[in-house]
Amino acid sequence: MNLCGTLPRLLPxxxxxxxQECGYLxxxxxxxxxxxxxxxxxxxxxxxxxxxxxxxxxxxxxDPDANWSTEVEETGPADxxxxxxxxxxxxxxxTLDRGWKMGIGLTGLPLWVNRRPVATYTSGSHxxxxxxxxxxxxxxxxxxxxxxxxxxxxxxxxxxGSGPAKSPGSQLADAKRHGTxxxxxxxxxxxxxxxxxxxxxxxxxRVMSRLxxxxxAALGTGAYALISANVWLLAHEGGWPRLLxxxxxxxxxxxxxxxxxxxxxxxxxDDDARERIVLFNVVTVVTLAIxxxxxxxxxxxxxxxxxxVAIPSGVLEQxxxxxxxxxxxxxxxxxxxxxxxxxxxxxxxxxxEAVREATYRRTPGRDGSQMAKED
Length: 375
Fold this sequence. Notes:
The chain has about 375 residues and is an alpha/beta fold. It has helices at about 45-60, 85-100, 140-155, 190-200, 210-225, 230-235, 240-260, 275-310, 315-320, 325-345, 350-360, 370-375; strands at about 10, 25, 30-40, 65-75, 100-105, 110-115, 115-125, 130, 175-180, 180-185. It folds into 2 domains: about 35-60 and about 65-195, 3-Layer(aba) Sandwich (Collagenase (Catalytic Domain)), CATH 3.40.390; about 200-370, no CATH class.
């Protein structure tokens, strides 16, 4: 009798319980099936959440009789140049060292196969799979659990296609098999989800706060502009369309300074890397743009409060002929624009490494990738 239809088939490690028909390793009823989750520090909270929910999900969707359990192993962050096969090999080594039946690697990097982004990467020969957290989008929720269940189902059955826990909106856009390797590709919606997930992972609203010199230069410049009578007159005479144009120009200046002065704009060395480089560049620009907008809003708020507290209405009215709230708002807006230009100059004093760390929130190991290259 072939037990493969009723028991989970598990690849490597223990030579016992092999199916006579297919050769896969079988987990007997009640046997403990340990699934390891390998993750870097930045993604640890998602791994802990997955480890807690996955056993019950597997009992519900795959096999209620198996004794599913999970273990989380923290490792160093992977280098951006690491390929899915590099990451798979690293997770496989961990799986063998810890004696797990299967291994799942969670990565904050996008996964690329044949020049296309993929959400998951499964290697049946190694009994491990990868999940790209950014590819799951902004609202991870059940998506991560569903992706993990789909990976485990693919590993135990050795077949492609969607598992029973696959989220209704996901599709198999690019299913290709090389031996026992299976790819779950991203649709157009998935590409947008990947982009949003990568931007979210960078925490764009906190980018400028992580650059102390640029932030200090912006605040200092804004404080000086706020007490300048000439700035008062310019704010009074300039209408809101002009002030808006000045604000956009100042934000464009700091964006240009940070991207090109610190080498954040990547260039493709070959055609195979072009799609990946385009994605990285888009993520870089959008991340910095959101961060700069957040800086501008913060500067405007601080300068408006400072103006209301520090500048007497009588003095402002004497210089400009008005001391209304709108007058204070125009003054704070122009001062914030000037402060943003100061922030652009301050960003030039930041080291390239500091800017990259603030933008990407990723610190590869000295050898380029602990997760992908450790022995």
